[in-house]
Automatic annotation (TrEMBL):
Keywords: Chromatin regulator, Hydrolase, Metal-binding, Nucleus, Repressor, Transcription, Transcription regulation
Binding, substrate: D108, G158, Y313
Catalytic activity: N(6)-acetyl-L-lysyl-[histone] + H2O = L-lysyl-[histone] + acetate
UniProt domain Histone deacetylase: residue ranges: 33-327
Name of the protein described by the UniProt record: Histone deacetylase
Highest rank taxon of the organism: Eukaryota
Amino acid sequence: MLSSQALYGSTDRLRVAYFMDFDVGGYYYGQHHPMKPHRMAITHNLCLAYGLYRHMDVYKPRKASPEECEKFHAHDYIEFLRNTTPDTITDDVLDQLQRFNVGRQHGDCPLFDGLWDFCAVSAGGSIDGARKLMSGTSDIAINWAGGLHHAKKSEASGFCYVNDIVLAILELLRLYPRVLYIDIDVHHGDGVEEAFYTTDRVLTVSFHKYGDNFFPGTGDVWDRGYGRGEGYAVNVPLKDGMDDAGFSRIFEPIITKVIEVYQPGAIVMQCGADSLAHDRLGCFNLTVQGHANAVAFVRSFRIPMLVLGGGGYNIRNVARCWLFETSVLLGISVDAQIPYNDYWEYFAPEYSLHIQPMRELENQNSRDYLEKVKSKVIEQLRQLEGAPSVQMKHMPPSIWPATDEIDSEDEAEDIASEDPVSSPTAS
Ligand SMILES: [Zn+2]
């Protein structure tokens, strides 16, 4: 039987905070839109059905305030998101719709009822997840409604409006000198990379499909950061058909080297489930077990960890994946047979938590290709060793004061206000 014990012997328990809001499943991007917030309600329901809620601290997420969102986003953009609804569109706001990339007909980022509340709940969970780690009350915080990695300072992009990840990292920077961001969504984590492209206080690593005009078009191996941030953006461009074995072969040595070189105080991991096989938009061939192996591997380093959702357009598989990853993070073995739950019929006919890869999908990532990408990245990381600009002193979180007493807040906000540098390959 497959179980969360399969790798790394991770049955030891860590304190896990879980942000659960069933209302978030009620928001609706539109009939033909692939993003279905309903997947969150299914995931939470499986958490209840499996009894996992009994082993973690469950919180209803607070809505982030506009002021909190403006630590990264522009004031006029946030005002627009708060005040514009499908019913209030007038000629006056048409230019804003265009400028902020919201509400285009058949566009990626529609203006839907409750949009601001949806963004505020997603961001509130991620910010408060960061605070749980900082206060030392949790070792791991999970917000599956977060992970919206494409949102920019003044622009919606790729189904994302407010970048909860950037906001959570800014919060973590108030305490931790260095924060590591890891992104395993099938799409490049461009919004997060861009926000921290010029700083060495955040190292971003994104594993994603690159090439063939795949969205968002950025994330080549040579895009490595700029100025003080040079070398601190890591991109692992991959091809169609990536399978479990190939993914762990490239993920594990790169993450091991990143952590060895960078010694982060906290890790934020975006677990976009569109890198699974059978996704409506993705082109990888990972199973739930293969996807979760990456999460288990990062957990094995025992560094405070904020775990977020992201893409994922086959809602049954998204729920399978995030339920299983919750169990992996808890260090609890779960039955591969899904127990009775409100969405029981969704999982017919096999009612299995696990999925099979697509046999007909060829893995275009040859051993040779992966080896070449890996050596380029390892060489990039080697050059960071002993880099004079980064403060390499390790600071265990437990000896630090509670969030309110931290005086490095000004520095964190300075980083947010720096003008991001656009990647030269932006689409
Ligand atoms: Zn994605």
